[in-house]
Fold this sequence. Notes:
Blueprint: E1 5-16, E2 21-32, E3 45-46, E4 53-54, H1 70-79, E5 88-93, E6 96-97, E7 105-112, E8 115-124, E9 130-135, E10 149-152, E11 166-173, E12 177-186, E13 189-201, H2 204-213, H3 217-234, E14 250-251
Amino acid sequence: MNRVDHIRGRTFHGRRGAVENAFSYGIDYVLIPDMEASVTAPAPFSRRRGTVAGVRDADHGGPPGQGRGAVWLREVLAAEGIDLPGATVGLLTQPRLLGHVFNPVSFWLVTDAAGLRAVVAEVTNTFGDRHSYLCAHSDLRPILPGDEMVATKVFHVSPFQQIAGEYRFRFAIGADSVAIRIDYRTEGAGLLATLQGRRAPLTLPGLAGAALRRPFGSRRVLALIHWQALKLALKGARYRRRPTPPAQEVTR
């Protein structure tokens, strides 16, 4: 059964360096274990139609609004020489709500009977650009919760951070909970971001509760991003203009 799970979670961001800033807030994610199969979810949630909430292929796997979903992810794995017969492709993301979606980061999860084999962190900035980081061991052994997956930063996310340094990812995707840690390190500065929450089947009351707690969905996320940007500007953080995005869609 391809059950859609609801992660009623919390995210934390803590900036290090000369200008410090930290915040934490509640957030709702969904986890679809198999993006190539039909799903089991309450009626207001849909994989295709323009209903109250859902996850569309067009929103993931390629440029925003032009995505190809799991087809894109399979092509990425093939291009990187990752051959995992029988593996499924899942997605951890904030759902589209009332016709709007914005995800600073979603996570493609490649799993098989041995566990989590690869993760693609799909990063989108507020300028409409997108880049993805592929995390996998060179021998494709399972990614364990204590494993640190390193990727060089090549993509402009915040105008108050330079394009330098590296990300150190940790993933703990369990049957009952989700915990992700992203430690961005660069000389004299950095940022720690986490996402964690309980994992449970998506239900109609749960969906309604998410809508009542956070009725503006990803619009709220965008508002919070701009609010934090204003705080950084008032604290004197240096603003950097948006550079040309990298030509490659995916790096590792």
